[in-house]
Each structure stands twice: as C-alpha cells, then as structure tokens.
C-alpha cells in the first residue's frame, strides 16, 4: 500500500482516536496520551487546577474497580481512591486470555468483555476498494469506539482470507492474527500481543498498522476457514495468544468482494476445513451460550436493493475485477437471527462520504440490545 494512502488512514482514524478525552489521564510516557498530548508530571496534558500528580480523581471509564451493577449508571466520570503513585496507566485490563472483567462498573449492559474479529479479504481484487474500506473503518471508529470504551476489556484483531505473508514465519497460517503491516513492520500494540486492546483504541498509528494488510494475498480466498481458524484452540494458545475468550461477547466482521466458492470461475476451491453445510452450526457452537454472545457483520460484493451490481469479470487477472455477488457468505451470515447480523455492500459507494453511517448506527443499536444495555 502506497505511503500517501497510509497517511490517509492515519488522518481519518485520528479524527476519532485523538482528542481531549485523554486530558488529565495518568500516564508514564507520551505514548499513553495519544498523538496530540504529552505526558507531563504523570498526567496527560499536565496537571490542572483540578488534577495533579497526586490527585485521587480521574475521569476514565476503564479504571473503575467498583462492584456495583453495571447497568446502574453510564460509565462517565468515576472517582477512584489512589495514592501518590503516578505510574498508573489509563486502563487496568491485562490481555492474558483469562477473565479480564475489571469490575461491576464497566460493561455494555451485561457484556463485560468484547472480542472483535475482522476477517478481511486481501486478495488482488481488493486493491481498488481500499478507499471504500477506509470509509468503513473510519465510520466504525467514529460510531463504535465511544461505545466500546464502556467495556471492561477489548480484544480487536484482524485475519486475512489466506495465510498472511507479512507475519513471522511461524504465524503465516490461515487464521493467525495480523501482527505486522504489509511491509513486515511489527504492529506496536500496547500490551505486546498480536491484537489491539483498550489502550490501542486511542492510537491511530497502531490501528493503521493493524488494517494495512495490502492486496497481495492468495487469490483463493478462504474467509470462512480464516474465521474459524482464528478461534481455534491451538492458534489461541500459540500465534493468537488468548485472543478468543469463550465468555466474551464475539463480534465478527467479514469483508470480502468475492464469494467463498468451491471451484469458482477461476478454479479456486475456497474454504475446505469445514463443509459448507456445517458453517452455520459450527458458528452457533463456538460459544457456550450460542447466539446469545454472537453478532456478525458482512461488507460484501452484493449490491444494495434497487441498485445495479458492480461489474464482475472473473477472467481479468488472476483474481478477477469488480465485485461478485456472494450468496454463500450472505447465507452464512443470515443463519443468525435478524437482530444478530447486519449486511452492507462494497458496491456503488463513493469514497469520502458517509455511506456506512446508517449501517454503524444499526450495529450499535443491535449490539446494545443484545447486551441488554
């Protein structure tokens, strides 16, 4: 991906991932305060008349250690008792793969911990859709990040539709989380894991790295195998380092411009680990609570209702050109109840607009309802 486009990613993300909300937060380094503030005297932006390095009041929803009902009040300003220690970090969760719930005062309704998995097609045909995906990711940040900050902990990871060549050699496996950008530069996640956690939501350059996956992936896309592979216990104990938590609420976001076909027009086989007839059942069986802790989003090649399909030419280059209708992936997503999925299109979207705002508003409302918030 060209460097100017990387800058565009950072600028777009910084619109929602930076700002005054870090002012007054305790810190140990400038990196704790995002790109717009400095760490001065142990406080982002420096101590004010109300906040000093020895102050006992902070205004962050992620450091609360109360045991009250999570639904009793919104996680706005919270008072915690502290000492003169100025080395406290803005969040208290540690991503060890164990129970990370930090107390009854955090959470989106009953949902304390959230796992968010992006399954992104990075095959050559996706190159011309990079700006469309930028719109989607930017809108996700603007509409969803404020909601996600209410959770007790966040695991946000990306897998590609084939083995990701920029990962370390031992993690160039289908379902292994992206841990480096398209040029092989490691993503510097705050907790040293191959996925973003709560502190990284305020780091646009870190999130830029996570989504900078290029378009040089395998033209035989296997997004369903990648999804299930990312949640496999073997990878979860290895390359993915505790990303998936059975007791967390799992949101899966599938981004693809081509269906997951067996012997498609280009001669590709698609996903093979799980037979298509078992996709839906396997999805429900992922969670001990079934659909109660599942939500799925699809950004697919299908056109919006009443609009023409994007032209699809499977014979142009090794991966085709345009976007293909995706009946198999659509049916997979729609195997969930209607209030547990949302689908939109990669077709006919003008980059730089607000095409995905209604989608994100739908997702936000349905997630809150699913969590009883």
UniProtKB/TrEMBL annotation:
Signal peptide: 1-23
Residue spans of biased composition, Low complexity class: 47-96
Keywords on record: Signal
Region Disordered, residue ranges: 45-103
Protein name: Uncharacterized protein
Species name: Nannocystis exedens
